[in-house]
Amino acid sequence: GLGKEYPPVERIADGQVANKADWPWQASLQVDGIHFCGASLISEEWLLTAAHCFDTYKNPKLWMASFGTTLSPPLMRRQVQSIIVHENYAAHKHDDDIAVVKLSTPVLFSEDVHKVCLPNATFEVLPKSKVFVTGWGALKANGPFPNTLRQVQVEIISNDVCNQVNVYGGAVSSGMICAGFLTGKLDACEGDSGGPLVIAQERNIWYLIGIVSWGIGCGKENKPGLYTRVTHYRDWIKSKTNIYIIMVFQFPSTGQRTLREKKIHNILNQKIRNARALPIDVSSVQVNGCGKRAVPLIVNRIMSGELAAKAAWPWQASLQRSNIHQCGATLISDKWLVTAAHCFKNNANPRQWTVTFGTTINPPLMKREVKRIIVHERYRSPAREYDIAVVQFYPRVTFSDDIRRICLPEASASFPPNSTVYITGFGALYYGGESQNNLREAKVKIISNAVCKQPQVYGNDIKFGMFCAGYLEGIYDACRGDSGGPLVVKDLKDTWYLIGIVSWGDNCGQKNKPGVYTQVTYYRRWIASKTECGARPDLITLSEERIIGGTLAEEGDWPWQVSLQLNNVHHCGGILISNTWILSAAHCFRSYSNPQQWTATFGISTTSPTLKVRVKSILLHNDYKTSTHENDIAAVQLERAVTFTKNIHRVCLPEATQNIIPGSTAYVTGWGSLTYGGNTVTDLRQGQVTIINSNVCNAPTGYNGAVLSGMLCAGVPEGGVDACQGDSGGPLVQEDSRRLWFLIGIVSWGYQCGLPDKPGVYTRVTAYRNWIKEQTGV
Known about the structure:
Structural class: mainly beta
CATH architecture of the largest domain: Beta Barrel
Organism: Sciurus carolinensis (Eastern gray squirrel)
CATH superfamily of the largest domain: Trypsin-like serine proteases
Radius of gyration: 29 Å
Low-confidence stretches: 4-14, 244-289, 295-304, 537-549
Number of strands: 39
Mean pLDDT: 78
Largest sheet: 6 strands, antiparallel, barrel
Pfam family, one: Trypsin
Helix content: under 10%
GO molecular function: serine-type endopeptidase activity
Shape: globular
Strand content: 25-35%
Number of helices: 6
């Protein structure tokens, strides 16, 4: 598991020899085979260490990482591919002493080598907590390094105590953590720079809270060790390595009523989507790609529920409560499952659930803890619509032949009636039977809605977002105990897609009562909005007859768009980047900087919004200049966190290094006026624009050099579509190849409105990526 380790209770404190596999995340960073620094493994390919390790040798090619408790022989070695030192680190100071190191090839986790957990930014460690530091450091100042990893138990000392005159006299900043003993003796010594300071939490999960940074001498009185405080740099680490921790939020559990009641809400039938062949998921080619399995499908099986071969259905999971199988589930990434909402009807407390993988329930191939359960907001038992939920587990799994993720179909994909599909699960073999220990599979056919809605079958109980599969004559079917499990289909390239989730059915394999499944394509965007940033409904390319300011948007089209209102009147746009932070333009607050006058509203109408939240604080860029529009960016903090839904969620932020390509298409949204000097509109509008090279934009006929490096131009050269006043602070976004949306610009200035040669000028988000992180932690 992640960060699991069981230390013996009595440790001699000034440096015990560690046992093999005691500290599996410990690495040694070496130059020419000589141990230089410690480091901690935080993912398959990233190490976290101290910046000062690279003061002398900065070239990654000189470095090698070794794993295992002995320096020679090491258990495993890896070349270093790149070294990223904190931008603000300077060799003569101790601040921001942190760096991440990327390995040239990922490590395979085992009992002896695996990652430590990273704490959330809000994780607090109290003074006097017992923590451990490990390394191959010298046992005394300037002494030789031992060959075997050593461990020391030390205590956290508060920064206030550590800053006392006789200790470090104010040199300890908020980005540092102090640990050791004021009496001296026990400490991390030089040569351990960059190594881990860890603490055990409940269930023996170990968290990395400090990186050995500096100290005076070695184990001297009143000179404890100083460590880089990991929580303080959590977002910096995330921005460099993309190792995420997702915010946890709770939802009320649904009432306990039986599934059998047939009171079903009427919901408007969704428009039938255009039929379209399945797109090929390029990622399925790699091992970590989805929907590939190591075992070929044997076609002529007679299926009344055959036993499944090992590794045949590597995405199948079992959701268990108190170690008893309750529902099936399907792996869609290395930490998310999709299943049925009704599984959690009586209990949605993540702590009581576990997940197992493999073709037998006992013994399982692998077991994981559940971190979060998100049931569809509109699911209401006993009705059966919206019967879908996603489950986040931890630690992540490493994909192998036996454990792989399934592919999700595009929202527009459709599957013709009579297609052959497969269901798998540990369900009962007959109605009322016990669930089985071994995974079984059955081959069934999709039944058209026309047939399934016949009165003798299910009539009007079949709503949008459901479909039927099985055989009308009965026999094979998914039986109880398989709720939540997968219904999958294979494309021509042998890639498997999840198209249904076992939802309900009357009895089991009865005549005219096939299984009913939640249709995954309908919920494709919902799944993305819960498990990824920047997801939104499919974009219909905007028509050519453009009104200035584009066309009207629909609810949920741009879920990160915010209206910032001054005394309840729309004043500026804003962009949701986390559940508590909004970005906007600094010039919006030039005359009105009192947060109490501002509210943020969500939804496409500024006058009847779906949600209103007060503003807690407004942070303007310190170097904002009104005359040149430089640094026109502000971060706005909400008084309370919003809950993400399909219609309200965050946009993705680009990396600082991301290139914005001139000529590419982007979208601008807002409630700006339709004409120069006109009033703002009450309904959200959208405009499609093109990114314009800044040199072109700075031509004498254009802005003549006024567009600076922190700005971005976008518009239509002939004019006409543009963001007009009243939209200041609103988003300019682009879609990437995974169909996630990224914020690239914030509406800043422009000459009048939609004139030729005078396109809109935006604050270039990539240029302020570090500022955003410093202010908001995002």
